[in-house]
Amino acid sequence: MGSPRRAIPILLVAVVAACTFPDLDTPSASLSASPLATPSAVPTESPTPTAGPDATPDPAAVPDFGAGELIATAIDGLRVRQRPGLGGIVVTGLLPRAATLQVVMGPILAEGLGWYLVTDADEDEPQFEEGWIAAGYEPDAFLAGTGEVAPRSPYLASFAARGDAEHGPVEIGDGDHAIRWAATDLDGGGCRFAVSLAAGRDDPVPAIRSTIGNADLVRGTLQPGSFDALGVRGPVFVAVASDCGWTLVIQRVPPPASPPPTP
After folding, report:
1. Domain interval for residue 129
2. Widest pairwise Cα distance in the chain
3. Of 149, 179, 210, which marks where a domain is finished?
4. Does one domain contain both 140 and 161?
5. For 14-26, how does the pLDDT look when each residue is reduced to its tens digit (9 = 90+)?
6. pLDDT tens-digit map of 82-111
7. Could you tell me the strand order of the sheet in which 143-149 lies?
């Protein structure tokens, strides 16, 4: 569906900021593959991620993946961490080459590397729920597209940028939805992060507002039910006013499981 607004290119982000909502548990999704229109080429093997000037070419060379896309590790030994950056606690380590992952959102820059939030989409060990993984840089990126997406993925759309941006429309249907986000102060003087939502041609409605003021990644969630409370359904446009680096994802939230019947 085309947008009546001018799309603003996604730029790349760095890491750190201030939070207004707790993180949302990640819904599970079926991960059998559906083909994408244009499969990505698998890059050649690259060294294990390291920080420093030699690992930071043009940020535009970080590979670009969308929400729900299935990707694969292109080298052996990548680690998944609780937060972007080589100092993040390891969720699982030493993934083999060709391990399959599902993209949640990203990329965001930390310690000279682009990072994506991913879920495990591989039946083999090691297994994990969710975490951040370094993407590396083209032409020798650490991650590669598979040309597939996960059907029935809860992740509708993800965006990443430095500064202001507008995206959409994203179709918000029935049921609960949430926005998960991460933001960082790139320049060390504090920054602001605000998100507005607009249904069709309606006026934008403020949805998220945060001030980022320290050197640590901040994450938050616009909780389920907010789309109804704000009156935004159908084709929804997302406008971000920010001088931070940031990324966000719009996702469907499954209804809570019914309790087992009382014996």
Report:
1. 34-46+58-149
2. 63
3. 149
4. no
5. 333 333 334 444 4
6. 999 898 999 998 999 999 999 999 999 888
7. 34-35, 143-149, 69-73, 100-110, 113-120, 130-134, 78-81, 90-95
